[in-house]
Amino acid sequence: MALDGIILSKVKEDLDTCLPIKINRISETSKTEILFNVLAGGSRRNLVMSFHSVYNHICFSDRNYATFAEPGTFVMVLRKYLIGGIIYAIEQFDYDRYLIFHIRSRNDLYDEKEYLLSVELMGKYANLILVDGESGRIIDALKKIPPYENTKRTILAGAVFEKTPPQRKSDPYDTLHPDMEESLVKQIQGFSKLLETEIRFRLTSQSYEDILKEIKESASLYLTPKGDSYEFHVIPLTHLQKETRRFSIQEGFDEIYFRDEEKERIRTISDDLFKVVKRQAKHFRSKITKLEESLEEALHPEEERLCGELLFMSGDLDKKGLKEITLEDYEGNPHLIKLDPKYSIKDNANRYFQTYQKKRKGKVYIEEQLDIARKQLTYFDALNEQLSIADYQDALDIREELVRYGYIREKKVRQKKKKKINLYEVRLGDTVIRFGKNNIQNDHLTFDVAKGSDIWFHTKDYHGSHVVVNTDEPSEEIIRICANLAAYYSTGRYSSSVPVCYTAVKNLKKIKGMPAGFVSMKTYKMIYIDPFDDKDLPIRMV
Length: 542
What we know:
Layout: H1 5-16, E1 21-30, E2 33-40, E3 43-50, E4 57-61, H2 73-82, E5 86-91, E6 98-106, E7 112-120, E8 127-132, E9 138-141, H3 184-187, H4 193-202, H5 208-217, E10 220-226, E11 229-233, E12 245-248, H6 249-298, H7 302-312, E13 324-328, E14 334-338, H8 345-388, H9 392-404, E15 424-428, E16 431-435, H10 439-449, E17 455-459, E18 467-469, H11 476-488, E19 498-504, E20 508-510, E21 519-521, E22 525-529, E23 539-541
Antiparallel strand pairs: 1-2, 1-5, 2-3, 3-4, 5-6, 6-7, 7-8, 8-9, 10-11, 10-12, 13-14, 15-16, 15-23, 16-18, 17-18, 17-19, 19-22, 20-21
């Protein structure tokens, strides 16, 4: 669900406690998400503004965000006017779904200027508009709306900024006796259909005044699972009759939106990656089919040798014009031999011997090429699976890998070139479990980070993560945790009884001719696991 005006009022209260807020940096994390690095409440924080049609929201966040190396024009305009500026006031009108930030900044002549930043979070109409505070005219906007698209409200550079039309509704905290026969959404500011449903459900055991008092005093966000996402509000959604989790406003939005917005950020850089990977996999599948057909022919060269020998033993070697000839083989059986009428019998015999030599020598070459093509197909199938579970940084690693091997051209997609290879880590007391989610991470973990005595885990028949635990004698519980991580972050994620091999790192060896992350084992043990998403594990990126 999208946030309503009541929830946004709680976000505003959270932001108000940090005023004044200084804007240090402005970055772009996706086409619909802008990150303001600010000094608020005496500490540096990220103020995230998302204008996605579904995930639009605004909140502080302590998460790590990868940003574009070359931001769009609008972000460059924001940088020009707002970096170094101070947000000194925030307004919300009629509990509507937009906030207006009042900002003091300095122009090129270091004169103090007043700017407005209209943060509009209205579903598909979500937008961010920068306004000159003195003239009241729009400087620029994330999403521009010309007059022919909306005659009531033009959003273009130079146009007069007009606030969204006011709601003809009652203040929620002044309305103690609404008409329960009518829709509360149509009567009261900031109400959504979800909140109305919750209020009507509670009215059987709680008074309307008490419900509004609970809403007014709330400083939390209550999340109720719904499929892969959540329904949420500032009071528990008891009508859903499911377990509810309580968060602060910031933590709640991070829980709700970070993964969904992460998908958007990944899609920004990985659409072409999926196309490249799928195209290459299709290419190698086709190549394997053709090579197998050629190998089948090359496996039977003796027929050509026999035809050549029989032709040389025939009578008139200089005779031409024949399309075929029947000769007896060494056992006295008739043997029909096709001929090219342009050539003599002798020349046809030589052609058969040439074909025989070509097939005999080509068999080795075809087998080599077939082995390479099969390894490449395995590699791209693994990449396809890694992309399906990748976060933003993992997708960047995979892009670098494809650039390194020449499958795509180098393209800058982030602010700073990443030198460190990230891994994922779980700490359980003195036990440290690390794992990778792509070939670069897997190879780095196994051959650069892990010790020879550490125990290594990987699914037997599926592409997936390398998992390493920092002990040579893991307990049964640790073995099962590691095996589950290896199985869950693999192509066998949705299978049952997934076989997982484990052995000491010293028993591993890189496979010659294969890309990073592919290994062979001297000896190993086996465990079977039903993969599941263990949300209680404290997984973090390091």
